[in-house]
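Suppose you are handed a protein chain with no further information: no name, no annotation, nothing but its sequence. What can you learn? This example shows the usual starting point.
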Amino acid sequence: MKAPETPTLSAWETGFRGLCPRCGTGKLYRSFLKVTERCDHCGLDLSQEDAGDGAVPFIILIAGTLGVGIGIWVMFAFETGVMTPMLVACPVVAAVVFLLLPRTKGLLIALQYLNKAGDTGVNTFDADS
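A reasonable first move is to predict its three-dimensional structure. Written in structure tokens, the prediction is:
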């Protein structure tokens, strides 16, 4: 007897929200960026899966663009020295990084699951998924 197929969930629905890529219910992380060993809802083995630093270049581009843009705007709009734009832009960059990093990493893990890909060149998820 063939196992029933699970409906394919969008990577945006699951990974970007930090949910299991298979069921969309269990949590993907056990702490800020630590991927859980196994989904507590469907049992998907996530212990071998890790997006590594794949999300970081995207976050650097977004946060850097916002930080430099806000810094330049503050410097010219308020005619300040160099320190004021840095004091304004640094918290914005930190907030963007902390907000987007787990979501982007979850998105990459969900895309790896949906495409049956892994960082080792083979599917690192279990065979029945």
